[in-house]
TrEMBL record:
It comes from the Bacteria. Pfam families: TetR_N (PF00440). Coiled coil: none annotated. Residues 43-103 form the HTH tetR-type domain. The lineage of its organism: Bacteria, Bacillati, Actinomycetota, Actinomycetes, Micromonosporales. Residues 66-85 bind DNA. Residues 230-254 have a biased composition (Low complexity). Residues 1-33, 230-262 are annotated as: Disordered. Keywords: DNA-binding, Transcription, Transcription regulation. This is TetR/AcrR family transcriptional regulator.
Length: 262
């Protein structure tokens, strides 16, 4: 039997997992005159399972989201699920890795587009993080809250992601007055504080409020390195910024090479 797919989203766009329903009609596999390769069918099923898993885990919690539920939400059979993943934990980790890759690409793009001034780049990066998570609350809950229930491997993945955020503190970011070793420890503390603050809002069901954190988090990110006066100016600029923000949770292809200096 031959199968064909409905049109995909715009070329080069990679939606964040959870931005669409798993049963998205645009990704329906239909009968047709052209036979799709097994690889294309599997990739489409994986993509739909990412969305189905995010929605089920966000709604029911990691422990209560069953493979059967995830498959139903994605419109994918259990045999197809197990052809792609070893089980629920494996599927969760794959979804998390894919989603955080998309998120980091968006942040990379914002950082690069802000220009040479590190304060502007820091603010733009934070704004992207907050607005993208607010635009896909199911992913925010899955990735920030339910990850705590997904086991030690998920915790390791979260630690790797937090280490990736250090790339946004590379030069031209000014050094703090601390030693080189303590300066790096300070970056770890700042990243951890931002993560904890964002996670708390998501856990409280206040994901839509995340963009409101921009002034405070801009200050937290910049003041330790620029000083309180410059950090305050950066925070006030963030609070007064009324330009349109991120409107779609999409990024360039995650397979492209990383930006220079990452």
């Amino acid at each position: 039997m031959s199968m064909s797919l409905a049109p995909h989203p715009a070329a080069g766009a990679t939606p964040l997992p959870g931005a669409r329903p798993g049963r998205d009609p645009e990704r329906a596999i239909k009968r047709g005159p052209r036979r799709l390769s097994a690889e294309v069918v599997a990739a489409t099923q994986r993509d739909r399972l990412f969305d189905g898993l995010v929605h089920e885990v966000a709604a029911k919690g990691y422990d209560n989201a069953r493979v059967t539920d995830i498959c139903r939400a994605a419109g994918v059979t259990r045999p197809a699920f197990y052809a792609l993943f070893a089980g629920k934990e494996d599927a969760f980790l794959a979804t998390y890795r894919h989603g955080t890759t998309v998120l980091l690409r968006l942040m990379d793009d914002a950082y690069a587009a802000a220009g040479p001034d590190w304060t502007d780049a820091a603010r733009a990066t934070l704004r992207t993080l907050l607005e993208v998570l607010a635009s896909v609350p199911a992913f925010a809950r899955m990735a920030l809250v339910e990850i705590d229930a997904a086991g030690p491997a998920a915790g390791d993945e979260r630690d790797l992601l937090l280490a990736e955020f250090h790339r946004f503190f590379h030069p031209p970011r000014p050094r703090s007055p601390l030693t080189e070793q303590d300066d790096e420890l300070l970056v770890t503390a700042v990243v951890g504080g931002i993560h904890t603050t964002v996670r708390q809002r998501v856990a409280q069901g206040r994901t839509a409020e995340l963009p409101q954190l921009l002034p405070a988090l801009t200050y937290a990110m910049t003041a330790p390195f620029l000083g309180p006066a410059a950090g305050g100016r950066a925070a006030r600029t963030a609070g007064a910024d009324a330009t349109p923000g991120v409107t779609a949770p999409c990024a360039a292809d995650p397979a492209r090479p990383p930006r220079r200096g990452a």
